[in-house]
Design brief:
With 432 residues, the chain is of the alpha+beta class. The chain has 2 domains: 83 residues, Rieske Iron-sulfur Protein (3-layer Sandwich); 278 residues, no CATH class. The protein contains 11 helices and 21 strands. Strands 12, 13, 14, 15, 16, 17, 18 and 21 form an 8-stranded antiparallel β-sheet that branches. It has a 4-stranded antiparallel β-sheet with strand order 2-3-4-9, with no helix packed on it. The longest helix has 18 residues. The protein is globular and about 85 Å long. Bound molecules: FE2/S2 (inorganic) cluster (FES) and fe (ii) ion. FE2/S2 (inorganic) cluster (FES) binds next to loops. FE2/S2 (inorganic) cluster binds next to loops.
Amino acid sequence: MLSRADNQLLTQSGPGTGAGGVLRQYWTPAALTQEISDGNGIVPVELLGEHLLLFRSRNGELGLIDRHCPHRGVDLCHARLESDGLRCPFHGWKFAKDGRCLEQPGEPEGSRAHQKIRTTAYPVVEKNGIVFAYLGDGDPPPLPGFDCFRAPGSHVFAFKGLWNCNWLQALEVGIDPVHASFLHRFLADDDPSEQYGKQFRDTAAGTNIPITKLLRDYPRPEIGVEETGFGLRITALRHMENGQTHVRITNQIFPAAVTIPMSSEMNITQWHVPVDDHRCYWYAMFTSFTAPVEQSVMRAQRLAEHSLPLYAPKRNAGNNYGFDQVEQETLTYTGMGRDINVHDQWACESPGTIRDRTKEHLGSTDKAITAHRRMLMAAIKKLQNGDASRRGLAGLRGPIAVDAIGASDQQDEIWRQVDQARRAACPWDAGL
Ligand code: FES
Ligand SMILES: [Fe+2]
């Protein structure tokens, strides 16, 4: 349970707010590369409560600037693209990617007034299908050495989806290891040949036990939470009858991401990014440790569930998330189909866009949520006290995210061994 004031500090994301200040200290996804390709030179970007646009100038460089012209405020999404920037169609002012006004062609000959004009502009970097932005003060940090960034582009697939809820709500579902046994429960296991590109459909490493069966049969995991350089390592142990233990390792990457196993082949790194305080995007990088990712297959799977251009889920509150009572009795725990993203979306959206945490009652299994709130609050207070230092993520690798099964007395090592074996065979990674 939180006080109303603390709930606001942790959830508000705009300029000058508590969490908003901390989120701005790190690179954050702003758009999919796909959105700024295919003939789209300018896309609107609403990010952390700021109205921006992302453009690719004719010479191929990306810029992220204020959406509204600093002259008289028109929407620069209709600007004219030029080789080194974009030009406002109202009076022809031209802006560079760093926000400098390069020309004011309607002002008197020789005028230097343009030199005093600078629009808001933020650094961007494009990596493996996502354009990341840095909205903070000072210089941006280097991108971390995580698997999703170290892997070649051929081994990563990126996608996103829009949810009508606060970013923290979305993150707190991602660091809750118990919900997978209930919210994502399948009453019968899928055909493993149909599992490509989907979560929870594989078998645990070295066994023929479907993950869906493990999660269903052992719903009371023993949960461990350990603070690390990148955030939190979350361990969920499911003790089985035969002296074996299923170990599932997931991670919270501070401040707003998770890295979790998807299958024996792939991991997911997923950011929860505020559009404003009532809407957020999840941005995911699916990273393969084996063959190149079948990007067109994975994109088609997800486009079947989302509407462009907003990447809004087709199942949503407006159509009751496709809820079907017969399906709930026979196929899935939720009755909302087999796409686990929809289950998570319902869990995030249905408490209301900003959950009133003065009314919640956390259980012992919510300890990662509590630990994350503590870290976030400490970072907010530090920043408010004038200390703008942040976590140094640059040298960090991994993080390890796996499902492993082994003898219970090996539970502390088995997950590292499974990860090492996977990395030893990985075409792009010689090991952590
Ligand atoms: S409003 Fe953009 S140049 Fe005048
Ligand atoms: Fe989930």
